[in-house]
Each structure stands twice: as structure tokens, then as C-alpha cells.
Design goal:
two-stranded antiparallel sheet; elongated; about 220 residues; alpha+beta
């Protein structure tokens, strides 16, 4: 790409000195086409065709540039539509979170979910990075206005975790625990060597990392 840009600049400089040499216009048009700068390519094709209207190479290149420009404009329209949809979804999600009085971070909840790019990460950012280890899409709000959240279950005693990508806010914690740790004679997970993890025996804690590091006991019958 750098070489193509260099060629384009060289050709532009040459054209200012030898405006009648059609070869330079072909080089310029070709360089801009390779850069996907179709409007410039068409301009240089037109200038070259003024000197050599029967140049089939320039005619074909111009046709390709017109098609490329149309395809490019179509993709830009699609991106614009997608961006508007994403902005509307982010606004809807922000409103839903704010209405519930949920604190996620100093930023908006949709920004909180964005993976940090800087090198300095606090503990909250590190946990966000853990969640990004999966294909989860972060918190979302459905057409009925209900929220779903990514939820990380941690078992410090064994250094293990479980990750629920979409925990519906109307779901009870017990609903998930019964699936993860059923009341069966055999251990539900290989790391539970002493067969202690049963849904009826577990006590869950919610860890807050937004304002200060603290944990709160959560009843298993509570909804998210």
C-alpha cells in the first residue's frame, strides 16, 4: 500500500510537468484504483481519455472504478445503518440500566463492556478482560425491555469459574445452580472431589468492584 501511494505521488508530480503524456494518466488512475480511491481514479481516467479517447485500458479501468465506487458507497450505507442501529441499542441499554439504578463503572455500561486498550488495568478491567475470553456480547436489552447480563461464577476454593453469557434478569440464581450443581449422588464437576457442591448447600455472594471491593450474600431465590 505504501508503494502504491508513492507511485501515485510520483505520477502526480510528473503530470504537473508533462500534462500531455497519456502514459502518466494511466499510471495515476491505476495507482488510485489500487488504493480504492475510485473518485480520483475516475478523474484521472477522464483526463487521460481527453488525450486518448480510444484508449481501451483507460475505458475499462474507468468502468471498474465506477463499479468499485458503487460497491463502496453501498458498503458505506450499510455501515451507516448498522452504526445507527448500534447507537439506538446502546441508548436503550443505557436507559434500561440507569432506570434500574445499576452502577457498572464510571463510564456508560456499553463503554464499560469495551475491552480496555491501554496497558494500565484495574481489577474491574481485568475481570472484563476475562469475560472477553469468550464470544459473549456483553449486557443487552431485549424487545420487551428485559436485561441480560454476562455473569461470572467464581469458586476460589478450587480456583475454578463458570461463565453464563446471557443471564436473564428475571431468572433466579437457584434456576442456574440446579442445572450446574444438581442434587445427584455423583459430583457434578470433576474438581469437586468431596462431592460438596450441591445447589441446596451453596451460598452465593455478589462481589462489587465498582465503588469498593466488597461482597454481599445473595439469596438463591433472588432474581438477578
Amino acid at each position: 500500500m505504501a508503494n502504491v501511494m508513492s507511485i501515485a505521488l510520483t505520477v502526480l508530480a510528473a503530470c504537473t510537468q508533462t500534462v500531455s503524456h497519456k502514459w502518466w494518466f494511466c499510471r495515476a488512475a491505476t495507482a488510485f484504483h489500487r488504493l480504492s480511491q475510485y473518485a480520483e481514479c475516475i478523474q484521472w481516467c477522464d483526463r487521460g481519455l481527453e488525450l486518448a479517447h480510444d484508449n481501451t485500458g483507460l475505458v475499462e479501468l474507468r468502468q471498474k472504478a465506477v463499479r468499485g465506487q458503487a460497491a463502496q458507497a453501498k458498503e458505506e450505507r450499510k455501515r451507516a445503518v448498522m452504526e445507527r442501529k448500534q447507537q439506538a441499542h446502546r441508548a436503550k441499554l443505557d436507559k434500561a440500566v440507569a432506570t434500574r439504578g445499576i452502577r457498572t463503572a464510571p463510564k456508560r455500561p456499553t463503554e464499560w463492556w469495551t475491552r480496555p486498550d491501554n496497558a494500565e488495568k484495574d481489577e474491574a478491567a481485568e475481570q472484563v478482560a476475562q469475560l472477553h475470553g469468550s464470544d459473549a456480547q456483553g449486557p443487552s436489552v431485549d424487545d420487551d425491555g428485559f436485561l441480560t447480563w454476562p455473569v461470572l461464577f467464581a469458586y476460589p476454593e478450587h480456583g475454578q469459574t463458570d461463565f453464563i453469557e446471557a443471564f436473564h434478569e428475571a431468572s433466579c440464581l437457584q434456576d442456574h445452580l440446579e442445572i450446574m450443581f444438581p442434587e445427584e449422588p455423583a459430583p457434578a464437576v470433576p474438581w469437586d472431589a468431596h462431592n460438596q457442591y450441591k445447589s441446596s448447600k451453596l451460598v452465593a455472594y455478589f462481589e462489587e468492584i465498582v465503588v469498593r471491593q466488597s461482597s454481599y450474600a445473595v439469596g438463591s431465590s433472588c432474581c438477578l
